[in-house]
Each structure stands twice: as structure tokens, then as C-alpha cells.
Design a protein that fits this description.
Pfam families: VOMI (PF03762)
InterPro entries: VOMI, VOMI_sf
Organism: Caloenas nicobarica (Nicobar pigeon)
Protein name: VMO1 protein
Structural class: mainly beta
Shape: globular
Oligomer: single chain
CATH superfamily: Vitelline membrane outer layer protein I (VOMI)
CATH topology: Vitelline Membrane Outer Layer Protein I, subunit A
GO cellular component, one term: extracellular space
Number of domains: 1
Number of helices: 0
Distance between the termini: 11 Å
Order of helices and strands: EEEEEEEEEEEEE
Length: 168
């Protein structure tokens, strides 16, 4: 499943799936805090699915795909009542197309659980929320990210640009 508002930079990384018989019931976010006026911001750098069997948060398996190098991982957020992740939305700052503009692309994400509960990442308030993805009939079981590589001093870094989830 996908959304239509992902950022335009980078390439699709490898997909990573929960182990057979497991599905995603939790999520954590790798976010870089705002860096200030003259530094390069990247905002949302990664998303990690927490896989469980029957919604039990003790499974210990994760599925991650590629994540950017900046920021810290948040604590896992779990769907209540042994729920499962079934869809998502992205907050994305559209391209500025300015020579010296600091592009950030994806800044936050929301995931909807099978009971309708929404888990929202600790990302920045930059950009706009896009529409929700279609929902998986059963659950999400895998993830694939579109990552802009780390350019260092040569170019503006944006890290995570877009996201695809795979249904069980």
C-alpha cells in the first residue's frame, strides 16, 4: 500500500518483512530534531515495524528497510487491544526548488490500527499531511522506504522521502 504525497528524492531500498506468521502491531520512528537556521535538517529518517504474533508486544522481531543516519529512535508505540497496523499517512514538506532551500521531504507519519486507533510519530510540524493509504484487509507485514543517500557537505540531505507497506 502507498500514499501519493511522498518526497521525490532518493531510491527505493530493499523491502523487509515480518517473519512468517507475524504481522506489524507496533511502530517506532527515527527522527532528527530541528537543527537551527544554518544547519541541514532531515526530520524523519526511518520507520521500524514491530512484528508480533496475535498482537502480543513481546515478539521482539522488527522490520526496518533502510533508515537515514541522523536522529534517534523513539520508543515503540503499539496498537491497543492486540490490534494490527493496517494503513498509514505521511506528513511531507513539498520541494521548495530554491537554490539554498533546506529540503526535508517526509517529516512525520501516522499509522492506523485495525480498531481505528491512530499512532503518530514524534516528527516535526513541517509540511502537510497527505491522505491515508488504502487499508490492508488483515494487517501490514512489511516495509520499504525511499531514502535519499547521505550527501554530506556536497548537497542538501533529506533522508526518508516515501514509504510503502506490504499487506499479509
Amino acid at each position: 500500500i502507498a500514499v501519493s504525497n511522498g518526497g521525490p528524492w532518493g531510491d527505493w531500498a530493499w523491502p523487509e518483512m515480518c517473519p512468517k506468521g507475524f504481522c506489524a502491531s507496533g511502530v517506532s520512528f527515527k527522527v532528527e530534531a530541528p537543527q537551527g537556521v544554518v544547519k541541514d535538517d532531515t526530520a524523519l529518517n526511518g520507520i521500524r515495524l514491530h512484528c508480533s504474533r496475535g498482537g502480543d508486544p513481546g515478539g521482539g522481531y522488527t522490520a526496518e528497510s533502510q533508515s537515514g543516519r541522523w536522529g534517534q529512535w523513539s520508543e515503540a508505540q503499539w496498537c491497543p487491544h492486540r490490534g494490527r497496523l493496517v494503513g498509514f499517512a505521511l506528513r511531507v514538506q513539498p520541494p521548495h526548488h530554491e537554490l539554498l532551500g533546506d529540503e526535508v521531504a517526509a517529516t512525520s507519519a501516522r499509522f492506523v490500527c485495525s480498531d481505528g486507533h491512530v499512532l503518530e510519530g514524534p516528527g516535526s510540524a513541517w509540511g502537510q499531511w497527505g491522505g491515508w493509504s488504502p487499508q490492508c484487509p488483515r494487517a501490514v507485514c512489511g516495509i520499504q522506504t525511499r531514502q535519499d543517500p547521505a550527501w554530506g557537505l556536497k548537497r542538501d540531505d533529506t533522508a526518508l522521502n516515501d514509504l510503502r507497506l506490504f499487506c499479509c
